[in-house]
């Protein structure tokens, strides 16, 4: 494939993001307001740090796009290129922040200028070069159980209901199902693949690379719309199980958005799922709640040959580096590194369930807005269930057990 | 109320952004409403805030604004930001000419950027009937000094090269119509009104209106009651509910209008584009997003503001048909807002019959936003002793009951 | 770079932007979303909603459970128009049948 004009060798099936990390090409675009450099953070299709132009279509996620021979990948929103961007001066000029609501409202001449300039700087990515290809008709599933999320909880729940004879469909938005199992060195890729295959064997219809884009209560008596890469699906189900897990989030410290600051789970994913060691000197910035997860990751990284330092969030005072990170500043001094892994409690991915009316509550220990459930896994909405990290962070092993348990309860409920 | 620390924090930012030092715009979450006020405006949408701002500028600052939700919760925070002069009645054309002028000056007058951009409005017709409608309106608009012109379909391509002209028979274009970003409009009015002493309470629903022997009302809220000499009903789609509290029937009804926004793209689309046959409209915001909607018939009167797949599908289908190159563009979010639909498509203004202290400012049929700058100004002039503008004479609630509505022209260009 | 603590990376919203919004009186999560722009970028708040909500609870000294999330709006992920245009639920207008297309 071609990345910003130069040829890159990559394995088919690997994501464009993993391939470009492996070959050292890393800054992909610039942010909208301050033109700060932007690149991968989550490696799971949720942060939008990795938007690129691919085959003439803007704003596609490099981490969720498989490499294809001859693919043309281009960076976006920078002049002259994403790695060296002259507009980055905006960040420097407004180093104390700017309130764009009141910027240059002092006179009409200045204001006209502000309007012109802001419009030219706005937006991310240019119009596609051609009309889209014609697509197949919308697919339809009428099932007993629809499981959203193909991580440890979702796979376990779906195979439980399918084994009991319930027609089950599972929707997963990643390149391959497995969720957090593919990121956690205590579980690993082989097990993720095993559970994935097992789920298919039990008769579950698995829609991979497919995202539940919304539940629409007023259309057709309630329908879940799902987008696959080239097709839309409508799903109708008697029971719904949300097993969407959590999103990796960043932690608040100065210059926490510098390229090279990655989610710890992304660093884990690169190692566990892709066999890529993303840095040689890795600093892990962590909160007390993630202690055990970080210990496992640190061991695995050390085992793979990295030099690992763990830093509590409270000690971090800044980061350094032009382009990619070169050091972090802590209360105890400067630490050189070529990668920072941020370990924060993942934020429950509860927004789909919220569209079904499920109650959520903001809970720091859960990582964000967790779905409220009873002991059986029922949410506040009839026939809607939830299990795994979306009900509060548990980690892969506990999430799998939770999924199996809630799956069994759904079977029992009819 | 704001604590002292927060105010200091605010001022420390003043030199950075070049802001004038002002108190916090909104009242805090605790604390009662004042015991009395000259005017209570119910509804903190753009109409209510515009009236409040203009009253304050004319020296009438003893005003409270009572908003039941958060600022911009209603239609004012949910519209597409279109501002046009292409209307079908003379009075609307003339009012909107003045509104456009006020929008041009808004950022400088009020100190908040609304990113008003005059990229024009392009209407597209697909048959002779639609063409005739455009031609009739243009004749009137030109008489009023609005330079709208008919275009051959090919000329529309010069303005929007991405159009697929199949089936398009004519277009009308006025280069001085425009779009703006709705939310800062509210912040601007709210902030300047507050700076003049108007007090704005959010999360403060009105539960009762008690007429007082001496005139005016005791306005009940969960944060105490305020005795107001005059009350203005600026509740948008919820206006009938407030009026009901004193037994006044307002014949408007809520219609859900859905809208959506795409991923941000580099600027390419100059005007607002609107297709008459489907009510499809779209424009590119200052942030680069394509914002637009389409008319869905048959959803009736409803306060439900949920989103439908039907809308997304219809909008997508019509937009890709009109601009095929947008097929790969992604929708980021959809939402809905209520139109306050009036029987003749025109607003309802002035005191309610038999209730000289209860004023109406509703029935704007989805165009309250673009009308607000001028309506607020005229309303404030009138309430502070000026002679009422013609629009108040023509828009009384009584027109529906006594049949005098017959001489009120019906506005039939309530799209986009 | 300049020591910014970024809470929302899609829209470059910093901790001090959040504090500024609260000091203006815009402290409801929906008002903060509109005033700062957080949660309106390509990820639609997946990365920042929980982070901002927890910071908001801290700044306004509320218990986190008192802070609701902002309204969840479809689509939950960016969805191409070409996909949506295929949905059979789309309304057909008179001009589509007249032309006899489809
Ligand atoms: S979306 Fe690709 S790295 Fe986050
Ligand atoms: S990080 Fe805030 S919208 Fe994406």
For the sheet with most strands of chain A, the description reads: 7 strands, mixed
- Which structural class matches the secondary elements of chain A? alpha/beta
Radius of gyration of chain A: 22 Å
Shape of chain C: elongated
Overview of the structural elements:
The complex is a heterotrimer of chains A (414), B (416) and C (102). Chain A has 414 residues and is α/β, with parallel strands linked by helices. Chain A is built from 9 helices and 25 strands. In chain A, the strands form 7 sheets. In chain A, strands 8, 9, 10, 11, 12, 13 and 25 form a 7-stranded mixed β-sheet that branches. The N and C termini of chain A lie far apart (50 Å). Chain B is α/β, with parallel strands linked by helices. Chain B has helices spanning 4-12, 14-17, 46-57, 90-110, 128-143, 153-159, 182-195, 239-244, 309-322, 368-383, 390-394, 398-401, and strands at 36-42, 63-66, 82-83, 121-125, 149-151, 170-174, 178-179, 199-201, 208-211, 217-221, 224-233, 253-264, 272-275, 280-284, 289-293, 330-341, 348-352, 355-362. In chain B, strands 1, 2, 8, 9, 10, 11, 17 and 18 form an 8-stranded mixed β-sheet that branches. An 8-stranded mixed β-sheet of chain B has the order 5-6-4-13-14-15-12-16, with helices on both faces. A two-stranded antiparallel ribbon of chain B has the order 3-7. In chain B, helix 3 (46-57) links the parallel strand 1 (36-42) and strand 2 (63-66). Chain C has one domain (6-91): BFD-like [2Fe-2S]-binding domain (Arc Repressor Mutant, subunit A, Orthogonal Bundle). Chain C has a two-stranded antiparallel sheet. Chain C has 5 helices and 3 strands, in the order E-E-H-H-H-E-H-H. Helix content of chain C is 37%, strand content 7%. Strand 16 of chain B pairs antiparallel with strand 3 of chain C, so a sheet runs across the interface. Bound molecules: FE2/S2 (inorganic) cluster (2 copies). One FE2/S2 (inorganic) cluster (FES) is lined by residues 17, 40-43, 45-50, 61, 63 of chain A.
């Amino acid at each position: 494939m071609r990345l910003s004009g130069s040829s890159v060798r990559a394995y088919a099936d690997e994501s464009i993001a993993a391939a470009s990390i492996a070959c050292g090409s890393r800054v992909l675009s610039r942010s909208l307001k301050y033109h700060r450099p932007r690149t991968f953070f989550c490696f799971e299709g949720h942060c939008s740090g990795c938007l690129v132009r691919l085959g003439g279509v803007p704003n596609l996620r490099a981490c969720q796009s498989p490499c294809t021979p001859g693919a043309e990948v281009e960076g976006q929103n920078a002049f002259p290129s994403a790695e060296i961007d002259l507009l980055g001066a905006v960040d420097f000029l407004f180093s104390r922040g700017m309130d764009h609501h009141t910027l240059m409202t002092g006179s009409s001449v200045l204001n006209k200028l502000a309007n012109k300039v802001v419009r030219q700087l706005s937006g991310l990515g240019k119009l596609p070069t051609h009309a889209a290809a014609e697509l197949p008709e919308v697919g339809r599933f009428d099932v007993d159980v629809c499981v959203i999320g193909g991580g440890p909880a979702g796979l376990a729940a779906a195979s439980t209901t399918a084994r009991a004879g319930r027609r089950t469909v599972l929707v997963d938005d990643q390149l391959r199902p497995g969720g957090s199992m593919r990121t956690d060195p205590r579980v690993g890729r082989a097990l993720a693949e095993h559970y994935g295959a097992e789920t298919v064997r039990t008769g579950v219809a698995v829609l991979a690379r497919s995202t539940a884009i919304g539940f629409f209560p007023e259309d057709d008596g309630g329908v879940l719309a799902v987008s696959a890469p080239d097709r839309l699906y409508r799903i109708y189900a008697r029971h719904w199980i949300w097993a969407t897990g959590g999103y990796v989030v960043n932690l608040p410290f100065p210059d926490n958005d510098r390229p090279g600051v990655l989610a710890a789970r992304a660093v884990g994913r690169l190692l566990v799922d892709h066999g890529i060691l993303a840095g040689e000197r890795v600093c892990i910035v962590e909160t007390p709640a993630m202690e055990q997860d970080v210990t496992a990751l640190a061991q695995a990284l050390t085992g793979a040959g990295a030099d690992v330092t763990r830093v509590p969030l409270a000690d971090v005072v800044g980061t350094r580096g032009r382009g990619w990170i070169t050091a972090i500043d802590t209360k105890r001094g400067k630490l050189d590194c070529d990668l920072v892994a941020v370990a924060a409690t993942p934020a429950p991915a509860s927004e789909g369930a919220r569209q079904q009316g499920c109650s959520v509550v903001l809970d720091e220990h859960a990582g964000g807005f967790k779905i409220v459930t009873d002991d059986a896994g029922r949410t506040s909405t009839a026939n809607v269930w939830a299990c795994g990290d979306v009900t509060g962070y548990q980690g892969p092993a506990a999430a799998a057990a939770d999924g199996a348990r809630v799956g069994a309860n759904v079977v029992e409920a009819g | 109320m704001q604590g002292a620390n927060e105010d200091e924090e605010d001022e420390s930012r003043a030199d950075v952004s070049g802001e004038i030092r002002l108190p916090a715009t909104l009242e805090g979450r605790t604390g009662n409403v004042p015991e009395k006020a000259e005017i209570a405006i119910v509804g903190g949408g753009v109409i209510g805030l515009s009236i409040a701002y203009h009253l304050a500028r004319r020296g009438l600052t003893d005003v409270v604004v009572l908003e039941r939700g958060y600022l911009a919760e209603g239609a004012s925070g949910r519209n597409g930001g279109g501002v046009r002069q292409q209307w079908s009645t003379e009075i609307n054309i003339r009012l909107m000419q003045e509104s456009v002028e006020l929008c041009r000056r808004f950022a400088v007058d009020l100190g908040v950027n609304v990113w008003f951009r005059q990229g024009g409005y392009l209407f597209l017709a697909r048959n002779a009937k639609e063409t005739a409608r455009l031609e009739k309106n243009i004749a009137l608009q030109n008489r009023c000094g609005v330079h709208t012109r008919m275009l051959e379909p090919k000329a529309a391509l010069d303005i929007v090269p991405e159009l697929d002209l199949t089936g398009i028979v004519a277009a009308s274009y006025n280069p001085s119509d425009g779009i703006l970003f709705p939310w800062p409009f509210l912040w601007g009015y709210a902030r300047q009104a507050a700076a003049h002493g108007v007090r704005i309470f959010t999360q403060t629903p009105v539960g009762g209106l008690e007429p007082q022997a001496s005139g005016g009302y005791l306005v009940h809220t969960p944060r105490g009651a305020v005795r107001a000499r005059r009350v203005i009903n600026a509740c948008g789609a919820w206006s009938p509910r407030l009026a009901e509290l004193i037994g006044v029937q307002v014949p408007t009804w809520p219609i859900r209008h859905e809208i959506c926004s795409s991923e941000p793209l580099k600027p390419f689309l100059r005007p607002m584009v609107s297709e008459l046959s489907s009510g499809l409209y779209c424009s590119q915001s200052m942030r680069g997003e394509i914002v637009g909607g389409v008319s869905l018939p048959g959803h009736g009167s409803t306060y439900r503001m949920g989103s439908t797949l039907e809308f997304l599908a219809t909008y997508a289908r019509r937009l890709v048909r009109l601009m095929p190159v947008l097929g790969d563009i992604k929708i980021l979010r959809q939402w809905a807002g209520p139109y306050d639909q009036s029987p003749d498509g025109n607003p309802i203004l002035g005191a309610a019959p038999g209730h000289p202290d209860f004023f109406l400012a509703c029935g704007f049929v989805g165009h309250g936003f673009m009308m607000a700058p001028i309506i607020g100004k005229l309303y404030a002039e009138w309430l502070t002793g000026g002679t009422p503008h013609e629009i108040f004479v023509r828009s009384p609630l009584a027109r529906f009951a006594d049949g005098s509505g017959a001489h009120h022209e019906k506005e039939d260009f309530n799209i986009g | 770079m300049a020591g910014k603590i970024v809470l929302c990376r899609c829209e470059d919203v910093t901790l001090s932007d959040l504090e500024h919004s609260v000091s203006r009186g815009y402290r409801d999560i929906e008002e903060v979303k509109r005033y700062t722009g957080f949660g309106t970028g390509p990820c639609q708040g997946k990365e920042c909603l929980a982070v901002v909500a927890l910071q908001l609870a801290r700044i306004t000294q509320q218990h986190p459970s008192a802070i609701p999330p902002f309204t969840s709006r479809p689509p939950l992920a960016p969805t191409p128009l070409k996909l949506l245009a295929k949905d059979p639920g789309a309304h057909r207008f008179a001009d589509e049948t007249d032309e006899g297309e489809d």
